[in-house]
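Journal club prep — side note

Before the paper discussion, L.F. wants everyone to see what a predicted structure for a comparable chain looks like in token form. Sequence:
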Amino acid sequence: MMSNQDLDSLKKAAALTAVEFVCDGMVVGLGTGSTAKHMVMALGEKVRAGMRLRGVPTSMETALLARQQGITLLDADNVWVIDVAIDGADQVDPHFNLIKGGGGALLKEKIVAASAKQFIVLVDHTKRVPVLGGAFPLPIEVIPFGWGSTAREIEALTKSPVVLRERNGAPFKTESGNMIVDVHLARIDSPRELEIALHLIPGVVETGLFVGRTDLLIVGTPNGVESYPATRT
């Protein structure tokens, strides 16, 4: 079993490969999480070396790091034309579908990914799974009003346990002021159908399922970095 330090080095290697797809003058979607952090820091090095780029962060944490790295950020209420978005994932299946949202930034991450001409996903090899679900729950962002009823509808649909995410003994709140429930599914055989069905439940804001959005998957492995182009479906 690899140590956390070894896994972090694989994340960094994947991030260094990803930033090679960023060119001077681009607008870049900046993901959130431990792998994306390496990407933002690598972009900061490029900026200090003279590259001109602007970023759209997916969280306040990423925005702070980007500013520290000297990356110019676009206003949140701007009409973006994002050239490339780069982000990590909690799980990725053989069809390049993802589960994201372990850090609670799934809504902003999906908005940025959907706005980008190209969406690059970075993972270490342990995030690749034969089928989504199992060890990692599916995060679903819901509005606070009536969240219990929304959770009950999600549970009825999925026939799986639904748990309100908490932090420090209180309900976790996203940057948009919403709550997250984590659905513990044994496996997700039809992620597209599940995503559509979940969005029909009143109170659901967004899901952590990223289906048919990945354009390029970059994987850090013990044997080096591997890249896999995908076609959006």
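L.F.'s comment for the group: The chain has a mean pLDDT of 96. Keep this in mind when we get to the figures.
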